[in-house]
Amino acid sequence: MGFLDSIERGLEKAVNGAFAKTFRSGVEPVEIASALKRELDTSATVVSRDRILVPNRLTVRLAPADHQRLRRLGDALLEELSGTVQGHARSSGYSFPGPIDLALEADEGLSTGMLEIDADTEAGEVVWTAVVDIKGRRHTLRRGRTIIGRGSDADITVDDAGASRKHAEIIWDGTRAQVSDLGSTNGTTLNGRTLKTALLEPDSIIDIGATRIVYRVLAQSKERS
């Protein structure tokens, strides 16, 4: 980070701090997401022509009131923020040395509306897990074939009259995934386009009937035997 960048960040912290102390406005999740993206950008280190390394341990420090309010959102908030961090890293060409470890902590030294981020690097073995988010529920995809549909014999059942009993399938091999329509009545779309079979990119949106399915790939620690 250059000298001018340091000055800019210092001014930003001073202005934000004065604003928070004056107006006592609480921190919102979108502000945390933006701050996490900035932290990755400013901490990025080029280690080779093909690899830019960023910290994978991120701690968001908040005023006690903000921390208490945001923690009521539960694990869903941390999952969304982790997804935002992974998405930003992917689009920017960044690499993590290990699985993302994201946490929120209360800091008595901060006023309501203020936040600080501590970033650190911790190496570790990573395994990739594919999941789909459907109507607020997260389903982990096993390796091989997962059928999604209205029928009770589908691997993932959706309560949707517009979906066929066996509507679509996702095949995950541990690294990549593809989605296929199984001859459904109303068809399947991927990111708004009708498909028969297509490769899945992280954060893709699959629609069957009136049901929206979000496909994600998450980095997790590899358990040691």
Descriptive account of the structure:
The protein has 225 residues and is α+β, with helices and mostly antiparallel strands. Helix content is 28%, strand content 37%. It is built from four helices and 17 strands. Strands 8-7-17-16-13-14 form a six-stranded antiparallel sheet, with no helix packed on it. Strands 10-9-11-12-15 form a five-stranded mixed sheet, with no helix packed on it. Strands 1-2-4 form a three-stranded mixed sheet. A hairpin with a 4-residue loop joins β11 (168-172) and β12. α2 runs parallel beside α4. The chain starts with a helix and ends with a strand. The model is unreliable at 1-8 and 14-23 (pLDDT under 50).
Report a brief summary of the structure.
With 225 residues, the chain is α+β, with helices and mostly antiparallel strands.
What would the keywords be for this entry?
single chain; 225 residues; alpha+beta; 6-stranded antiparallel beta sheet; 5-stranded mixed beta sheet; 17 strands; 28% helix; globular; disordered N terminus
